[in-house]
């Protein structure tokens, strides 16, 4: 996406665009799930500003609203096909760190920690849950073999999602190992194999970083193999 | 003291969880909608009043918003954020649309501007939501002046970023960037403080 459009994320989240710019930006959002995710985060923060302005509503409003609702037909839900399309759009796009758009089929790899095997839908929900955590933050980094990585981390959820792109399958007999760092010695946080899902890491504790190394399939007590990716965040 | 439901958007699962109530509302459950009303009417009305300023108009807009929540509950998409955030976004959008169309009308009629309403500090100090209000105020204080002014003039003032740039005598680029930086810093501060 262009910087000019990207720069409108803040004004959009604050409803500070004029009607034409708003329409253009929404059209752009439809095609850029990373932007949509960022806007979602910014809008959630703006909503906190809104909630801070709370005042008791006039008592008479309650009856009027409930009465009007009772005689108002509800809009139907969106159909599953449309939902699935959006999910497919949002998940791969999240991997495109810093909004680099990676065409599908370029080997965008998703990795799933072995110890968890949720279905894609559940995984997407977990990702959505992570993205909507008020304290969710995104840390981007480079994959040493080329490609990009992104970690969404939330202390509230005590979890992180790791997304790597441009990574081949681990060499024979080896696997990608995820480590939590910054809280004493690196702690193993699961192994990753090529999959179509991001890796969900639970139990961050006080870790302030995530690393990925190549390790023997049967495990390592500490990171010993080549470093593939690291990302750090502040406490 | 617990923060009010309005002040803590995250309380998953329980009866006071806006997302659960919204899901039941989407299935036509009027009791759930009434509970949801009790949870969100304060934040919705307060925000709309803050932007629109005129209590009678604020009440009208709040009613539109809350009925819209009922009408479109099934369209709420959890993947795009929390339920309360969705409702507040709806409320803010409506409030802003109202002041902008009112402003356009006022400009045509060359009517005098309404005096400023209560400042942030002067909003009613009911116990509900006080913690959240204090937290938000503290976090707003942590922004640079231009970040804070950019964010609040747009969000509470209902101004476009072009108007904000004019009001602050600064470039469009600066205002756009400060809005985004300001929100990111706010998010980090609010997350850390909750």
Automatic annotation (TrEMBL), chain A:
<dbReference type="GO" id="GO:0016989">
    <property type="term" value="F:sigma factor antagonist activity"/>
</dbReference>
<feature type="domain" description="Anti-sigma K factor RskA C-terminal">
    <location>
        <begin position="95"/>
        <end position="226"/>
    </location>
</feature>
<feature type="transmembrane region" description="Helical">
    <location>
        <begin position="90"/>
        <end position="111"/>
    </location>
</feature>
<feature type="domain" description="Anti-sigma-K factor RskA N-terminal">
    <location>
        <begin position="6"/>
        <end position="37"/>
    </location>
</feature>
<keyword id="KW-0804">Transcription</keyword>
<protein>
    <recommendedName>
        <fullName>Regulator of SigK</fullName>
    </recommendedName>
</protein>
<dbReference type="Pfam" id="PF22618">
    <property type="entry name" value="RskA_N"/>
</dbReference>
<dbReference type="InterPro" id="IPR051474">
    <property type="entry name" value="Anti-sigma-K/W_factor"/>
</dbReference>
<keyword id="KW-0472">Membrane</keyword>
<keyword id="KW-0812">Transmembrane</keyword>
<dbReference type="GO" id="GO:0006417">
    <property type="term" value="P:regulation of translation"/>
</dbReference>
<keyword id="KW-1003">Cell membrane</keyword>
<dbReference type="InterPro" id="IPR041916">
    <property type="entry name" value="Anti_sigma_zinc_sf"/>
</dbReference>
<dbReference type="GO" id="GO:0005886">
    <property type="term" value="C:plasma membrane"/>
</dbReference>
<keyword id="KW-1133">Transmembrane helix</keyword>
<keyword id="KW-0805">Transcription regulation</keyword>
<dbReference type="Pfam" id="PF10099">
    <property type="entry name" value="RskA_C"/>
</dbReference>
<dbReference type="InterPro" id="IPR018764">
    <property type="entry name" value="RskA_C"/>
</dbReference>
<dbReference type="InterPro" id="IPR053877">
    <property type="entry name" value="RskA_N"/>
</dbReference>
Automatic annotation (TrEMBL), chain B:
<keyword id="KW-0731">Sigma factor</keyword>
<dbReference type="InterPro" id="IPR013325">
    <property type="entry name" value="RNA_pol_sigma_r2"/>
</dbReference>
<dbReference type="InterPro" id="IPR039425">
    <property type="entry name" value="RNA_pol_sigma-70-like"/>
</dbReference>
<keyword id="KW-0805">Transcription regulation</keyword>
<dbReference type="GO" id="GO:0006352">
    <property type="term" value="P:DNA-templated transcription initiation"/>
</dbReference>
<dbReference type="GO" id="GO:0003677">
    <property type="term" value="F:DNA binding"/>
</dbReference>
<dbReference type="InterPro" id="IPR007627">
    <property type="entry name" value="RNA_pol_sigma70_r2"/>
</dbReference>
<comment type="similarity">
    <text>Belongs to the sigma-70 factor family. ECF subfamily.</text>
</comment>
<dbReference type="GO" id="GO:0016987">
    <property type="term" value="F:sigma factor activity"/>
</dbReference>
<protein>
    <submittedName>
        <fullName>Sigma-70 family RNA polymerase sigma factor</fullName>
    </submittedName>
</protein>
<feature type="domain" description="RNA polymerase sigma factor 70 region 4 type 2">
    <location>
        <begin position="133"/>
        <end position="186"/>
    </location>
</feature>
<dbReference type="InterPro" id="IPR013324">
    <property type="entry name" value="RNA_pol_sigma_r3/r4-like"/>
</dbReference>
<dbReference type="InterPro" id="IPR013249">
    <property type="entry name" value="RNA_pol_sigma70_r4_t2"/>
</dbReference>
<dbReference type="InterPro" id="IPR036388">
    <property type="entry name" value="WH-like_DNA-bd_sf"/>
</dbReference>
<dbReference type="InterPro" id="IPR014284">
    <property type="entry name" value="RNA_pol_sigma-70_dom"/>
</dbReference>
<keyword id="KW-0804">Transcription</keyword>
<feature type="domain" description="RNA polymerase sigma-70 region 2">
    <location>
        <begin position="37"/>
        <end position="103"/>
    </location>
</feature>
<dbReference type="Pfam" id="PF08281">
    <property type="entry name" value="Sigma70_r4_2"/>
</dbReference>
<dbReference type="Pfam" id="PF04542">
    <property type="entry name" value="Sigma70_r2"/>
</dbReference>
